[in-house]
Amino acid sequence: MLLPLLLAAAAPVDAGPVIALVKGEGDRQCLPDKSLCLEIPVVAEDGGGDTALIVTPADGEPTTVPLPEYDDAGQRELWPNLIAFKSDDGAQHYLVGILGRQNAMYSGGGGSASRLHLYEFGLESGATGLGEEVLNVVWGGSLMIRACFSEQDMKDRLEACHDEYDFSATLTAAPDDGGMFPALTYRAVATTFPRTSRRSEDNSAGKLKRADLVRAEDPACTYDRVLRYNPATSRYEMDRPAPECSDYTTP
Length: 251
Description:
Layout: E1 18-20, E2 22-23, E3 29-30, E4 36-39, E5 52-57, E6 63-66, E7 75-86, E8 92-106, E9 109-122, E10 129-146, H1 151-156, E11 162-173, E12 184-193, E13 216-217, E14 223-230, E15 235-238, H2 246-249
Antiparallel strand pairs: 1-7, 2-3, 3-4, 4-5, 5-6, 7-8, 8-9, 9-10, 10-11, 11-12, 12-13, 12-14, 14-15
């Protein structure tokens, strides 16, 4: 395991493993007690992040940590949480998340999607760095696809001329299983608007009713999974496979 993150002020015992970061100075995101702040500077014209993570402990100078390369990193953003846990010797450890985001534009619409990459994180005697990736999971998706191509389409669809598909995920604490890293619950929610829309179908072919003009969950891609760390693979694994939901997560 990567060198432990040793801080004078540890996370509160009752805070739970998933700790929401709070706003710090400038664009920094910090632990609630401000004992540690993180930042991925925004430098690109498109608003994307740089390829480095800036780590600032309360009692030290900022350290620049290079970010690993991965295929979906169109833009990089800091996941605004840390996962906290302690080793058998009582040392405080964290997992840090980086969001890789892709965007696409096309005639009459566009979309974006993101994946969460979770890494071991260490800070000791200047040896700050990211360790092995322990999780790579789909995190979000938002797509808008044109569905009106004539005045008749507009009438048939009651002027709802775009199909919208959204996907969002969360991580929360799962019951402790005694593993090296805390067990987590992954919750995914997929929605469509209008409620009858399906990306793999021609949604301009039929008429909509007023009752269809609502955002509705897609039960096929709304699901829960438990994530547990497997020492044999050095990664978090789902308790059962996730459904195929690329209609929501591929821009």
